[in-house]
Every structure is written in C-alpha cells, then in structure tokens.
Amino acid sequence: MASERTSPRDQPSGLGGPLLVSFRKIYGRDLRAALRDTQPVAYLETIIGLGLIVAINLLFFRTDNWGFFDANPHPFWLVILPIAVRYGALPAYTAGLLAAALYILFVIFQPRSAFAVDIFSTQAFLNPVLFVVVGGVLGEVREAQKRAHRDLARRYDEIEASLQDLAERYLAAVEINREMQRRIVTQASTVTTLYQAAKALERLEIEELAPSVLQLVTEFIEADACALYLRRDGQLELKEGRPAAVAFNRPRTLDLSRGGIIGAVAAEKRTITVRDVMAEATPSEIMAQPLLMATPLLGPNGEVIGIITVEKMPFLRFTPTAVKLFTLLGDWATTAFQTAMRFQETRDRNVSDELTGAYNFSYMSKRLAQEVDRAQRYGIPLTLVGLRVGQHDAIPPVKLPQILQTLGFVFRQHIRPIDILGRGATEDTFLVVLPHLTEQEGRALAERVRGEIEAFGFQPFDDDRTLEVQVALVSAAEAPGGAEEMVERVLARLAASSPAPSPGGAGRR
C-alpha cells in the first residue's frame, strides 16, 4: 500500500536487489517466504541431477562429446523439465540458471584443440537462454496450479467455517426457542399456539418471514398495531404493517437522526419503550404517543438491519412482562432474519455451476424470460441454442467432470460477453441464450462450437468412440408462448436429432 514504508535496512542492495523487488511484485511476498514454501529436496535433486550429468560427461564423453554439445536435446533438460513441472517457479528458475551456468562453463573451458562451440556464436547462448526461459515458463504454470489449489483449499476452509457458523446459530436459535417457550408458558397460550409460533419463524424467505413475525407480536404481546422496517439503500423502509390500513399516519421510512425511541434503538441496539424517553408521562400521554416500543433486528456484525415497532396496544397489557416478551421475540426474529439473509446470499452466489461456469437451470430460465420480454418489447432478434452431449450415460463417471469442464471452457470461448450460458434440466444438456442474433447467426455459432469439439477428438469412452454434440435452435419469433415454449421446442428438437441407441452399445441404456 502507498502508506507502507521500508527502512534502509529492509531495502535490498546489490545485484540481488532488483531480482528480489521483481519477485515481490510477482508473488506479493518476500523471497524468504517463497523459499520456505519450496521443498528443499527440489534444490538437492537439481544439484544431484546436474552433477551426475556433468560427471558422466567428464568421465565418459570428455573427448568424444565435451559438454554434450552434440546432443539434441541436451541432457540438462532431463533435470530442468521434471523440476519445473513438479516443484514450481523458484526451483525451475534455479535449475535453469544452474544448467545455463554449467553450459557456459563447458563452453569457456572446452578443449582448445576441439573448438566445438564458438564462444561468441548463437549456439553458445541459445541453450542457456532456453534453459532459463522454458524452465521458468513451465515453473510459472506449475506455480499457477499450486496457487489455484491453495485458493480452492482456502475457499473450502471458508465454506467449512460458514457451515460451522450456521451450526452455532442453529444451536443458538434452539436455545432461544427453549427460553421463549419457558417464558411464554406463563402467558395465556396453548401448546398448539407455541408450536405454530416456532414453525412460523423457520421460513427462509424474507417476504414470508416479515408477516410471521408481526403475527407473533400481535398474538403474544396483544398489540393492536405493529410494523416491521428493514434496511434498504441505507434507510429503514416499511416492510410489513399489521393491520395494513390504520387510522393514524404510519411512516414509510424511519429517520434515525431525529432521536426519540427510534434513535435510541439504533444507538443502543436494545428494546426501547416510551417510558424510557418519557419517564414522568401519565397513562393518557403514553397512550397518545405514535409509538409505544421498538426493538432492533441485528445483523451478523451487530449492525441494525431492521426494527419492529408496536404502535398501539391496551394500556393494561403494556407491562414489564410484555416488554421482556417483546425483547425475546425481537431476539428470535433477529436469528430468523440472519438465517434468511444468509440463505438468500448463499442462493444468489450459487446460481452458477463452478465446474462448467454455466448458470443452473432455474436461474437460466429466469434470465431467458427477461431476455424474451426485452426482445418482444423492442422487436430485436433472440435465439436459444440447445447442445446435448451425445451418449452422456456411457461416459465413465471418473471422466465426466473433466469433459464437462472442457465443454464449458469451449462454450465460453466462442460466445459473446452478453450471451448467457446455462445448464439444461438434465445433466447432458446446455442452453445458450443469444440476444440480438437471428437463428441463422446462432446456427453458425453453434456449428463452430460443435466443429471445435469434434475436431478435438475427445475419447471419453472405454472404446475408440469420440464425443459428439447435438445442436438445436429456436428463435423467439417461433415461440409466442415465451421462454417456457422456447425451452420445450429446443429440447424437442434435440431429442429428434439424437441418434437412436445401437443395440449392444457399451454403456448404453
């Protein structure tokens, strides 16, 4: 970061300075950390391998083939390539540089009677340069794979931690449930009512959760009017009110800067009643207030994500016990809303398949419906392409993930950024939405994709058969029924174009 400074002692000096700075820019850490992450055996294997080749040359080929100058490819590749592929960038650069240095030493100290290689010729420098460049490139590729593996491991740890957090929240919700049941038992409620209350807050959709919370406030606090506000675009907006139509003016948004009950709830993050802000008020003054009490809904980090308000209730029911019960309902609702928000975030993140990069069928159907509506509204062309993997059931399960991943990569390489790639309702089908393309243009693109796949010659089966892909198209103009009809038509055309299974085919059903 710009604010970070290094002392003169930390500044690299000498010839190693620029190399160390370059390495830090590439890897985002210092050379010592990279050395710690590299297995020491890589350097040992490099030294032993190159040493053996040098020893063999000096012992057996000293006069016939000094430095193995006549060998092509050079034996040093037997050390550089395995080291780069196995251990990554730093060992690869080390092996390449060491091999280059040995090669140059051979050139310099070659017997003068032979003059096999001119010191100033291209041959004298080509192999050393190739040792460093090719070894470095292969090492960087391996390093990228290692970094990708570490990223996957980190993501796995994050997901595992998230699941652990959900488990802890579930246990907390169970404990709150038990505590609430113990407290509500003293109220005039039946076991059936308590069970219904517990089930009401198990919903994972916020749209369904809001009225359930207000239903509990109405039943257990005996509130005549209550409301629930949720944060949206930095404001607390009215989400649900009970009853929906009231004789007084119910605000559409809550102003946290005005103070009063709402301001105190936002600042102190606890239940606040009118008695907390009007200690000397008479019963008639209390009942005349537009708000009797409010409790916050807190997010995972303690921020206020919503507020439940009680606007009207019988004075005789406005007791400390009712306030405690209202607080307990707020805590329970907080847990329910956090779970619902976490579920919504997880569902939004999981709209795509990590293996192929394609959207799942449910999300794909929604996007297709939006594109169809846009195409019909503005009179622009829209084409849906269906691609089916031939003989999908015959592909061994161990090879299927690699095939699907490769197919997803091929599809993404040939479609435009505005095109939408998704999975079909079955595992063997892909759907591609092509906005602004006619059916003829979409067919040309689909044929290019199919040609690319068939030219590659995938052989995922247990025999010599190659992978085939069936293609079908339908335009929005052909399907006046909308997105659902387009999907049905393209699937029907795929089924019609699929070859009939041959008797006795391996893995066929």
Description of the structure:
It contains 16 helices and ten strands. It has 509 residues and is of the alpha+beta class. The chain folds into three domains: 137 residues, no CATH class; 163 residues, GAF domain (Beta-Lactamase), CATH 3.30.450; 137 residues, 2-Layer Sandwich (Alpha-Beta Plaits), CATH 3.30.70. A hairpin with a 5-residue loop joins β8 and β9. α4 packs antiparallel against α5 and α5 runs antiparallel to α6.
Write a brief caption for the model.
With 509 residues, this protein is of the alpha+beta class. The chain has 16 helices and ten strands.
Tally of separate helices:
16
Q: What count of domains describes the coordinates? A: 3
Q: What value does the Rg take, in angstroms?
A: 35 Å
The share of residues in extended strands comes to: 5-15%
Determine the fraction of residues in helical runs and give it as a percent range.
Answer: 40-55%
Largest sheet: 6 strands, antiparallel
* Adjacency order of strands in the biggest sheet: 3-2-1-6-5-4
What is the level 1 CATH name of the largest domain? Alpha Beta
From the coordinates shown, what is the CATH architecture of the largest domain?
Answer: 2-Layer Sandwich
CATH homolog superfamily of the largest domain: GAF domain
Low-confidence stretches: 1-26, 186-190, 501-509
Please give the alpha-carbon distance between the first and last residues: 60 Å
CATH topology of the largest domain: Beta-Lactamase
